[in-house]
Amino acid sequence: MLEEFKKFAMRGNVVDLAVGVIIGAAFGGIINSIVADVIMPVISAVTGGLDFSNYFLPLSSRVTAATLAEAKKQGAVLAWGNFLTIVLNFLVVAWVLFLVVKGVNRLHISQPAAPAELPKDVQLLTEIRDLLKNRAAGRDAQPS
Questions:
Q1: How far apart are the first and last CA of the chain?
Q2: Cα–Cα distance, 69 to 82 (Å, whole number)
Q3: Mean pLDDT computed over 40-67
Q4: Are 80 and 54 in contact (CB under 8 A)?
Q5: Contact at 8 Å (CB) between 51 and 68?
């Protein structure tokens, strides 16, 4: 059983998937930083200081806090600003992945497909057709 597990774990697809998950987690951290540290401050500056991360809707009358962290301690809240930030994270990730895939596709050099060779009988029929066309065109060109 141990040998079978070793074969499974060391197969190329499993190792590639593991590497992809690890790189994806690191990439997620980078994207979160881009959104939190670059994009959201710019949006905040353009909109006059809006901070989406603290936008919430209290679902209980006990919630009186001004910040999301404090409000969550007091009771149930609908953190729509945090959701908006996460949606923006997703859009940035999707856009970057689109650009990466597009770049990789440009690097992929497609080789032109070799023309399929026609069977001998089809080649012979094509030659006969061309000869008949040429013969008919020759008669039409000559005055009668």
A1: 91
A2: 11
A3: 83
A4: no
A5: no
Q: Are 52 and 40 in contact (CB under 8 A)?
A: yes
Is residue 56 a contact partner of residue 78, using CB atoms and an 8 Å limit?
yes
How far is it, in rounded angstroms, from Cα 91 to Cα 81? 15
- Tokens linked to 44: 């905040």
Would you state the structure tokens that stand for residue 89, as one six-digit string?
């994270």
Q: Would you say the pTM of this structure is higher than 0.70?
A: no
Distance CA 93, CA 39 (A): 13
What is the arithmetic mean of pLDDT over 82-105? 83
Residue whose C-alpha is closest to residue 78's, from 91, 88, 63: 63
**CA–CA separation, 73 vs 65, rounded Å?**
9
